[in-house]
Amino acid sequence: MDETTKKKKKTAECCGYPISIFFIVVNEFCERFSYYGMRAVLVLYFRYFLLWDDDLATSIYHAFVALCYLTPILGAIIADSWLGKFKTIIYLSIVYAIGQVTMAISTIHDITDANRDGTPDNFTFHIALSMLGLILIALGTGGIKPCVAAFGGDQFQEHQSRQLNTFFSVFYLCINAGSLLSTLITPVLRAQECGIHTQQQCYPLAFGVPAVLMVISLVVFIAGSGMYVKTDPEGNIMWSVCKCIGFAIKNRFRHRSSSYPKREHWMDWANEKYDKLLIAQIKMVLKVLFLYIPLPMFWTLFDQKGSRWTLQATTMSGDFGAFILQPDQMQTVNPILILTLVPIMDRLIFPLIQKCGLNFSPLKRMTVGMLFAAMAFVSAALVQIEIDKTLPNFPSSSESQLKVVNTYSTTLNVTISPNEHLLIESFGSSADYVTFDHQDITVSLNTNPVITKAFSLIKGGRQTLIIPSDPTVMYLKEDVKSKPREGKNAIRFVNGYTADLNITNLDSIEPSATTNYTLVNQGKRDFVLRHGEQWCEFSRKFGFGASYTFLIPSTVFSDDCESITEVEDMKPNSVHMALQIPQYFLITTGEVMFSVTGLQFSYSQAPKNMKSVLQAGWLCTNAVGNIIVLIVAELGKLPKQWAEYLLFASLLVAVSIIFSIMAYFYTYIDPAEIEAQVRKEQGLEPEEMEKETIEMEEKDEDQKNEQGVKQTKI
Ligand SMILES: CC(C)C[C@H](NC(=O)[C@@H](N)Cc1ccccc1)C(=O)O
């Protein structure tokens, strides 16, 4: 039975949809849960389990994401040239599940924690195992990605073209439902404590649940195997494509003299040796791939949601009254909006546009999607301008900033050479930082006798001059010079008490000493101060992104911690995270128009034996977009973040103009019809041809109207 016949095999239907689709969308839901769930805790695993620094953790994370969108090419080649989509999905899902299990095992600290101190003793083992796991996951997730969407499309018969379009929307909904649930659940699992010998953050559970979901995904897919329409690969198609293109180029070069008549298309130079059908199919694929060239720019903006926009959120306030939103949780707005916008677009907006007689063809939708993404970045720039107004005035690389804290018993007159005079009361501080364009300063205090001391400030840094109860030992302490990470608050204590103090979660602190900064989350936090039998409790409510120095006086125990003074080194964030919602709304509207349409378009414009290849080409635009983000991050940025957002928005507008011109010259095709025409011209399979022609006539006209199809002969 050849493939065309298989396509006509009657499949079980429910409400006009093939029942097999149910297994495919559930499989996609579980797979995306597995992928995004693992991704949600990956950077934290690198940072706090493997103890990598921020730069290494984020670079490896982005490299992994880019790899996940490069491996689709491999999966597509295997599927279209060798195993077929069904077997490729099964085999690569097994690789994927093994990868997830390997990753989960690599996070069990007890495996190498011989001394039972809660940290692994052999990091090489954990790094090697997790890298192996990640490579297998990238192979699996990327490899099956182009096959699953195309395999879903294959389940539909010719008369189900409207259902086919809805399938791609439902498919996208499942992706986002899976990713939304897992991004909410896995961080909670990670926050649990577990372990055999010592209780630690529960990474094995956070990675284990995605591994289980991947196994379920595989089982669900296998469960549907009796119902699928399975198309066999037609030999090593990719190799034939490469050879055919190579021959056309060589042949064209050999006949470059003007004495040879021109051919309609450069691929026609392969006519002498290759089948007309193959040449026609290659032309279809190349036309679409050419159209994809500008598309990575969309993903370059889109993928910055996870990086730049999350960083932007760390400088904002996430207090929504009824709940507190962490900066990285803001990203879940995207899948939530997808779940609401896809049905609205499909059921309301697109039909309405069609009713108005406007031809909103797929390529027009994609162009508008790009413009929405550009508007999202303009919105991000406006929000950034608002944030910048509230940010502290951090020192430039040539400046130094200094603040003075006085824990001496009386008010002091502090003179900082050459002409800075500050009057600072006991257990108080200078109002704000003083900026110097030189590093060497001399500080004089109006004590009796006058105390004078020279200091060298840090270039580009912020410091506090701590004047303790014995001012002769005044000293400099380095301050935070950027907003604390993840919207947390940086706090520290100066011990003005006469003896050592113990403070909850901090090391013991000597008299006159200052602790290093500790990061605390938003909300009410309690600290217990102890010295021997004496203790008192001290509570403070924190917002987002502030920094404080708490001055502990000698009377701290007699007045039950009441006299602790708070010095605000950095104001809490005041611009609300809700202001990011418009930019999320715009980028998600853009995503629905661009990504869901692109998925459908890549399927509908591909010849039947190259459906996965074109899906892989589509996913590759995402990989290139991710790589551009990496390069831009490395190359440094514009001095102002809002300017960078505007630059990206303008670049995308320029790219969308180029894309719209390319789209104008693109003629939509029905690959099946073109293949039938070529076969007819070749005088092949007359019976088969007849059947196809009848079916094509029966085909739903709606799709053509919807897509603005202009049938053409390649
Ligand atoms: C890039 C892929 C083609 C598209 C797809 N991604 C999405 O649908 C995102 N909206 C999912 C998401 C979830 C959570 C946070 C950000 C984005 C995919 O993964 O297949």
From TrEMBL:
<feature type="region of interest" description="Disordered">
    <location>
        <begin position="680"/>
        <end position="714"/>
    </location>
</feature>
<keyword id="KW-0812">Transmembrane</keyword>
<feature type="transmembrane region" description="Helical">
    <location>
        <begin position="205"/>
        <end position="229"/>
    </location>
</feature>
<feature type="transmembrane region" description="Helical">
    <location>
        <begin position="645"/>
        <end position="669"/>
    </location>
</feature>
<feature type="transmembrane region" description="Helical">
    <location>
        <begin position="56"/>
        <end position="77"/>
    </location>
</feature>
<comment type="similarity">
    <text>Belongs to the major facilitator superfamily. Proton-dependent oligopeptide transporter (POT/PTR) (TC 2.A.17) family.</text>
</comment>
<feature type="transmembrane region" description="Helical">
    <location>
        <begin position="613"/>
        <end position="633"/>
    </location>
</feature>
<dbReference type="InterPro" id="IPR036259">
    <property type="entry name" value="MFS_trans_sf"/>
</dbReference>
<dbReference type="Pfam" id="PF00854">
    <property type="entry name" value="PTR2"/>
</dbReference>
<dbReference type="GO" id="GO:0015293">
    <property type="term" value="F:symporter activity"/>
</dbReference>
<comment type="function">
    <text>Electrogenic proton-coupled amino-acid transporter that transports oligopeptides of 2 to 4 amino acids with a preference for dipeptides. Transports neutral and monovalently charged peptides with a proton to peptide stoichiometry of 1:1 or 2:1. Primarily responsible for the absorption of dietary di- and tripeptides from the small intestinal lumen. Mediates transepithelial transport of muramyl and N-formylated bacterial dipeptides contributing to recognition of pathogenic bacteria by the mucosal immune system.</text>
</comment>
<feature type="transmembrane region" description="Helical">
    <location>
        <begin position="284"/>
        <end position="302"/>
    </location>
</feature>
<feature type="transmembrane region" description="Helical">
    <location>
        <begin position="366"/>
        <end position="385"/>
    </location>
</feature>
<feature type="transmembrane region" description="Helical">
    <location>
        <begin position="123"/>
        <end position="144"/>
    </location>
</feature>
<keyword id="KW-1133">Transmembrane helix</keyword>
<dbReference type="GO" id="GO:0016324">
    <property type="term" value="C:apical plasma membrane"/>
</dbReference>
<keyword id="KW-1003">Cell membrane</keyword>
<feature type="transmembrane region" description="Helical">
    <location>
        <begin position="33"/>
        <end position="50"/>
    </location>
</feature>
<keyword id="KW-0653">Protein transport</keyword>
<feature type="transmembrane region" description="Helical">
    <location>
        <begin position="164"/>
        <end position="185"/>
    </location>
</feature>
<keyword id="KW-0472">Membrane</keyword>
<protein>
    <recommendedName>
        <fullName>Solute carrier family 15 member 1</fullName>
    </recommendedName>
</protein>
<keyword id="KW-0571">Peptide transport</keyword>
<keyword id="KW-0813">Transport</keyword>
<feature type="compositionally biased region" description="Basic and acidic residues">
    <location>
        <begin position="691"/>
        <end position="707"/>
    </location>
</feature>
<keyword id="KW-0325">Glycoprotein</keyword>
<dbReference type="InterPro" id="IPR018456">
    <property type="entry name" value="PTR2_symporter_CS"/>
</dbReference>
<dbReference type="GO" id="GO:0015031">
    <property type="term" value="P:protein transport"/>
</dbReference>
<dbReference type="InterPro" id="IPR000109">
    <property type="entry name" value="POT_fam"/>
</dbReference>
<keyword id="KW-0769">Symport</keyword>
<dbReference type="GO" id="GO:0006857">
    <property type="term" value="P:oligopeptide transport"/>
</dbReference>
<feature type="transmembrane region" description="Helical">
    <location>
        <begin position="89"/>
        <end position="111"/>
    </location>
</feature>
